[in-house]
């Protein structure tokens, strides 16, 4: 089994409320996005060379989307089962 050197938990917006206007700006696909990930450039360079903040943002967004879709499917299937009774 592979050993991990670090684990990143993104709890902003989950456990920590932020004011979007105060977040740093990251260019993603030519558009400015306010995100806490904009400040991770140096850490990504050190621990994940070649992975820029914009690439990491897309990966994090994909994981978040996948988790949300799974929750929606679970909710929909549980809701339809309870409605069938």
Structure in words:
- The protein is mainly alpha-helical and 85 residues long.
- The chain has one domain.
- Helix content is 46%, strand content 9%.
- The chain has a two-stranded antiparallel ribbon.
- A hairpin with a 2-residue loop joins strand 1 and strand 2.
- It is globular, with a radius of gyration of 17 Å.
- The N and C termini lie far apart (45 Å).
- The model has no long low-confidence stretch (mean pLDDT 80).
Described by the principal axes of the CA atoms, the overall outline is globular
| Secondary-structure element pattern, one letter each | EEHH
Whole-Å distance between the termini?
45 Å
Output the structural class: mainly alpha
Radius of gyration using CA atoms only: 17 Å
The average pLDDT score comes to 80
| Approximate strand percentage | 5-15%
Quaternary assembly: single chain
Count structural domains: 1
Give the biggest beta sheet: 2 strands, antiparallel
- The count of DSSP E runs of length 2 or more, i.e. the number of strands, is 2
In terms of per-residue confidence, which ranges show pLDDT below 50 for 5 or more consecutive residues? none
Strand numbers in spatial order across the main sheet: 1-2
Question: What's the layout of helices and strands?
Answer:
Elements: E1 25-28, E2 31-34, H1 41-47, H2 53-84
Antiparallel strand pairs: 1-2
Give descriptors for this structure.
mainly alpha; two-stranded antiparallel sheet; 2 helices
Quick structural overview:
By secondary structure, the protein is mainly alpha-helical.
């Amino acid at each position: 089994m592979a050993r991990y050197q670090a684990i990143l938990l993104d709890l902003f917006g989950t456990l920590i409320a932020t004011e979007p206007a105060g977040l740093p700006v990251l260019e993603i696909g030519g558009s400015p996005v306010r995100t806490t990930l904009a400040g991770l450039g140096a850490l990504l360079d050190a621990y994940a060379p070649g992975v820029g903040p914009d690439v990491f943002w897309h990966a994090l967004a994909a994981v978040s989307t996948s988790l949300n879709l799974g929750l929606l499917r679970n909710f929909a299937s549980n809701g339809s089962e309870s409605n069938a009774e």
